[in-house]
Write the structure tokens for this entry.
Amino acid sequence: MRTIALALIGVVVGLAGCGGDDDQPTGTPEQQIRALIGDLNRAVRDRDGDRVCNELYTDGLVKRMKAAGLDCVEAINRTSARPSYDVQRVAVDGDHARVEVRATGAGPEAQVILVRREDGRWRIDDAGD
């Protein structure tokens, strides 16, 4: 349920790295994850639900939203909240990472975003507790 609520305020987020469409990401995993959160900030600000759902979120997150009755793109585009996230800490464990962020503009200030590597790129997979 937390994922659904956060999706509606723009937290649920996946292009996880740096580079263009087919380019391999560069930099350390932490740098790639920080770039992912920056991409999320821009896409949410621009109400670019298509980019958020197709490039920044994992396929699994989008499927969980759909199973809960939410259209990902519509949820991002229609929400009035436009939060911005400032990365405080990144803890990488293999293909998974926990990102502690400070949010402004919506929701609780301290939040956790869980990301994982999917198809060679870091993507947002869920909001943690």
About this structure: The two ends are 11 Å apart (CA to CA).
